């Protein structure tokens, strides 16, 4: 099962999305014969790994998760998880639970890492992978929020966590903050949340002036501030992945 799901995920592109995602959905629905959602949980874990490893394609993997959430057979149940009404968690609710738990675990674990000086060492490779996955996680979380799979409250909690240290900010978390705000800022920045957003950007302004951060990170923060000032219209937006057509 693991090998076949990995093979399908490796084949997944924007061009064949419908066909391959249908096949992945069929694998997830095989958990209807189980009481612990084992196959579905493993599928979600593998999708999560791909999304954090390949942040360029985060929006495609978020779209896949949305399809799994909306189309997973309600007969798929996990008898170890219960709803408030005392029923077994099932179907799309189960998909969202597995996904949210995985996101929360990795986000709380963090991804601060000291990069070794030897660029060719195994330690450098591992450190770079941890950092890449951390940035991929933040990008993926943002894309899930854009598809209404994560709540606005969760997104505010993520931003607050990344903004918690203004005096001696970690570069990894600050870079992640810039990525997250760039992804979700337009949707978060509405009238009802204006006071929150104003407070966030006051702290971002303070961080952008903090000489303890390197110039690359400070410029990223200034770009985020310019983006909000421009009503979230990014004139220099890079082209994302396209279909062949």
Automatic annotation (TrEMBL):
The keyword Kinase does not apply. Gene3D superfamilies: 1.25.40.180. Residues 2-231 form the MIF4G domain. Pfam families: MIF4G (PF02854). Its main location: cytoplasm. The keyword Protein biosynthesis applies. Keywords: Cytoplasm, Initiation factor, Phosphoprotein, Protein biosynthesis, RNA-binding. InterPro entries: ARM-type_fold, MIF4G-like_typ-3. It is found in: Cytoplasm. It comes from the Eukaryota. Coiled coil: none annotated. GO terms for molecular function: mRNA binding; translation initiation factor activity. One of its GO terms (cellular component) is cytoplasmic stress granule. Belongs to the eukaryotic initiation factor 4G family. This is ARM repeat-containing protein. It comes from Linderina pennispora.
